[in-house]
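Work package 3, deliverable 3.1, input record:
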Amino acid sequence: MSTLQLGLEREGPVVVVVMAGQMDGTTATLFTAFLDEHLTDDDRCVVLDASNLTFLSSAGLRELMLLLRRLARHQAKPAIFGMTPPVALSLGISGFESLLIRVQDRASAVHAVTPIAPEKPGLLSRLFGGGAPS
Amino acid sequence: MTHTSSRSPSAHAPNSGESSLRLAVLFCGIDVCLNSYAAYGSNSVTITGALFRELADFIAMLSAFTTVRAVRRAPNERFAYGVGKLENLVSVGTALLMAGCGISILFQALEAIKHPRPTEGTLPGIMLFAGSALVCLWLWQRNQRALRDQHSAISQSQAHIWFAKALVDALMATALLLALRFPEHRWSAYLDPVASLMGVAFLFHGAWAMASSSVQDLLDATLEETTKLRIMRHMVEHFADYEHLYHIRTRRSGPRVYVEVFLRFDPELRIGDVAHTINRLRSAIGASIPGADVTVCPVEPSAAI
């Protein structure tokens, strides 16, 4: 019997979804139910921690697609890190890699999805209402 | 809900696969007669084993040919649907027969190894094996061409059989030729039973390959995970063309593969645009899974799957 454990951690605006176990036909719907319960409509920076995810089936990918749709509404993509070989294989064959930001570790993943804050305009910009005088 | 599906036309005229089978039945029939003659005049286990194999093959080909004709026959009020599974039932029966023949030859070969004796009267058998190897290679190539035209479980299993037969026959001919050429050496007495063991191995392998794929088809099993991932790839490639993927349902029924994809589209899209996307998806999935009957179902947002 396959099991899927899910956890959620927040780092500022970034939500890290920690997945462990197998995401297959019997457990995949837990993923969407978990996200529905814990994510708000404003959450657009999502990181998937797949370090302990040992299997990802086509049913799991379908649930992942629901998350992609959710984020696509905000023109955002989730980042994923720590993929085990079976998970990397599933993502590779299905072409899902193109829809995700693949990174090496958690820090890079958080950085990849964190929105870049617009630069604060300097005093001169504020005074002259646009570009600084040359 | 609107259903749009692609299905290859069910022809009621003989196709290239059927003509290949007809030729195979004829060839196997002749081969059985010639092998009977060769086995009658020889004490070789290899040749006796070959006769068993030819008999099994002949029955397999005859059953396959009869089945394909039954499947092709236009449906009538008594027997309209479901005959496609006959292909798989026949394959399972053939596999059992091949396994039975294999066991019989195995016992004969072990007996001959325990009590080795020089083989006699093998020349007709050697000529037969050599000729048979050449003909099998030709038939294998012919089957490969038929498979490219139309995918079928039977044609595929026949292609495997022909290739294996060509290889086994060539090995048998070589072993018997060596035994005939060097009768004074003690090792030559073992060539005949050892060669027949190789034949047994090929027979078991063929039986296993035939039975395993056919049983899975008979069970209406869902597609294997790798194929489902390939279907998902098409869904990823068309990610922007639909709003929501509800469900992908797959199953096998006899030689056919069924794929049903349930999608929600933007309600503002024109029906022509939706139909265009459906056609592209269907063609893409159909091209990546030979023999697949692909259905793409647009689902209304309120409908639950």
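Residues 1-12 of chain B have pLDDT under 50 and may be disordered.
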